[in-house]
Target: DNA or RNA helicase of superfamily II
Amino acid sequence: MTFTLRPYQQEAVDATLAWFRRHTEPAAIVLPTGAGKSLVIAELARLARGRVLVLAHVKELVAQNHAKYCALGLEADIFAAGLQRKESHGKVVFGSVQSVARNLDQFRSEFSLLIVDECHRISDDDDSQYQQIIGHLRQGQSADPAARPDGHAVPPWQGLDLSVPLSWDGARR
Model:
């Protein structure tokens, strides 16, 4: 099964890609309930050059986002105890924030894009699970262009602005 993005969904994808071409700061996509955020997430994950981690706070959203991505004919891992799957080596990994935060050692390799579904749930508290994951991913990024598979240096991280995609050079097209 394939999907065609609605015009407003394609505009969200295009605007996000345009943002990442010009900026190193995170981007936020705001769409109302029922607007098809899972399809936008799937398209952004499909277009990303490097590895992608998609986080959600409940197993239902993890499963929904994974299903939409796989409906594009693509394969992805799931890392969510509630779904009884802990796979973390694929190009795209859909995970529950709780499971990923408890198993950060399984997320040592670099990711070029972090997408947070329901990003308003990200706390400013450094001890929150989201911030633990973000900090861990930041530490895993190399600033040495020779160490990066795409040959690009990682720009400095900026403050998190309740983002959907959290990007560095490897996420840009």
Remarks:
- The longest strand covers residues 52-56.
